[in-house]
Amino acid sequence: MKDPHPERQTDAEPPTFDALTSPDELVRGDRTRDDFFDAVLGLETPATAGEVAERAGHGVDAAREYLEWFGRMGIVTRVTESPATYERNQAYLNWRRVQHLRDEYSSEELLEFLQAETERAEGIAEAFDGTSPDEISITDHASETGQSVDDVWERVTDWKTARRRIALLERALTSESGDAADQRPAV
């Protein structure tokens, strides 16, 4: 091998590649798209591109591009124009969950899950002597029953979760709902 031209020669030592920052440390989290997807899934209220960028740990320009793409896919909806704010599209996420249930489980398994969740929801409703978790005042019930607010809140949350699962399982068991969302391709 020839020596480099004298102008390109140096007395410096070659770099120690082991001392360089590893690529894993340079790249935050998983792929950028996943960072933005996680940020969008965590939205509880409409957010600007700047707020989504901050949650994802990336730049605002990238957030705008991903939010526009997520909008075309149906994952988010634009709420306002100026400033542009976005919210997650819960109907889309529910549709995805229903598709996952249909793909992963047989009708018999889905019926078993539905029966178990229905029994769980009915048991909780009976314990509260109510028909809906939304009608329960957590602090009033805690005070009336001598339970802690945390315990009552946890049971009300379990009740809400059971009801959401029942709704998803019922949709998964309905083969032809006539719902346009059920007929969209997943991606």
- Shape by Cα distribution: elongated
- Based on helices, strands and strand pairing, what is the structural class? mainly alpha
Please tally the β strands and state the result. Answer: 3
Lateral strand order in the biggest sheet? 1-3-2
Q: Level of helix content?
A: 55-70%
Order of helices and strands: HHEHHEEHHHH
Largest sheet features: 3 strands, antiparallel
Regions with little confidence, pLDDT below 50 for 5+ residues:
20-29, 180-187
**Percentage of residues in DSSP E strands:** 5-15%
Distance between the termini: 53 Å
Mean model confidence by pLDDT = 84
Q: In DSSP terms, counting alpha (H) and pi (I) runs of 4 or more, how many helices?
A: 8
Radius of gyration: 26 Å
List keywords for this structure.
single chain; 187 residues; mainly alpha; three-stranded antiparallel sheet; 3 strands; 7% strand; elongated; disordered C terminus
Explain how this protein is built:
With 187 residues, this protein is mainly alpha-helical. It is 57% helix and 7% strand. The chain has helices at 23-26, 32-41, 49-56, 60-73, 90-104, 107-128, 138-145, 149-173, and strands at 47-48, 76-81, 84-88. It has a 3-stranded antiparallel sheet with strand order 1-3-2. The model is unreliable at 20-29 and 180-187 (pLDDT under 50).
